[in-house]
């Protein structure tokens, strides 16, 4: 196996790894958005059930 072939494989592996990391990051961002929307909706539903106005609750 020559140096050129090993360099090409290393570059290919790094490119593939970068692509996977970017895809994972995109999926995490999507998940976090959905999770935040779910929590917001859940808080509003629970506040409505308890007759608590959300405007007065400080959510951190």
Secondary structure blueprint with pairings:
Blueprint: H1 3-50
Structural features, described:
- The chain has 60 residues and is mostly helical.
- It has one domain.
- Helix content is 80%, strand content 0%.
- It is rod-shaped.
- The protein starts with a helix and ends in a 10-residue tail after the last helix.
- The mean pLDDT is 85.
User: Into how many domains do the coordinates divide?
Assistant: 1
The total of beta strands comes to 0
Overall radius of gyration: 23 Å
Q: What is the N-to-C order of secondary-structure elements (H for helix, E for strand)?
A: H
Query: Given the helix and strand composition, which structural class is it?
Result: mainly alpha
Shape: rod-shaped
Please give a handful of descriptors for the protein shown.
60 residues, mainly alpha
In short:
The chain is built from one helix and no strands. With 60 residues, it is mostly helical.
